[in-house]
Amino acid sequence: MKRILLIGIVLVAIWLIFHESNEDSLEPTGDETTTAEEQNQEEMTDDEEAQDQEETDEQEETQETEDQMQESDTETSEEESSTEDSTPMETSSEESSESEQTEETPSETPPTTMESGEVPAEEEPRQPLVYAIDSKVKVYLYEWGIDLSQQNILPGNVEFEVVNNGQFTHHFAIEGVNDFGKVRPGEARVFTTQLLSGSFDIYSPRNIDLENGMRETLYVE
Q1: Is-contact 134 159, C-beta < 8 A?
Q2: Does 104 score more than 70 pLDDT?
Q3: Of residues 205, 214, 218, the one with CA closest to residue 171
């Protein structure tokens, strides 16, 4: 009988120990409870920060929109003020230009009145200046010489008709008087000058022409 009681007591003790161990395993530990609470707090903190960030972004967008509207209003007011300021300036400049034009405009001379019976005098046309030619000389240029139609002429105004019969361009010059310029092959030019009594060398001042003795003497008596 005693053995049966001992066995029952042992079984009851075993059952109690097993039951207590199950309860301990089912109940969460202090560390696990703290970790879960911290995770919940972190999630709540993240949500609150996200909401705060959204609110901050919305406030910044609203502020930017208001700033842009203020800037556009400011620009519009500046343009209007500049337009109002420029309008009187333009008007004043136009008035000053008109006054200057009025001052610069010469006073019109009153038309001359003619008495009855008077005939207006006709203006005589201007005649071109014509020099009386005292002598005419034809000059022929070629390689390498100069021929004159006459070598003795009278003093006064002399007309030279210069013809280049050569294959190269030559010059016509009178020593001590003038270099009249070049005469191209096949070209004829007319030069007029005044010569006093004396002898004059007619030549081409090009170096190659001078080296080849392209020179002739004209006598004015």
Answers
A1: no
A2: no
A3: 205
* Together in a domain, 144 and 213: yes
Domain count, the chain: 2
10: buried, middle or exposed (CB in 10 Å: 19+, 13-18, 0-12)? exposed
**Amino acid (one-letter) located at 60:** E
Q: Which tokens belong to 22? A: 């199950």
| Helix or strand run (H / E) with residue 142 | strand 135-142
Helix, strand, coil shares of the chain, percent, nearest 5, are: 50, 25, 30
For residue 183, give its domain range.
Answer: 135-220
Distances (CA, A) of 15 to 18, 19, 204: 5, 6, 152
DSSP 170-217: EEEEETTTEEEEEE-TT-EEEEEEEE-SEEEEEE--SHHHHHTT-EEE
Question: Residue 57's pLDDT band (boundaries 50, 70, 90)?
Answer: confident
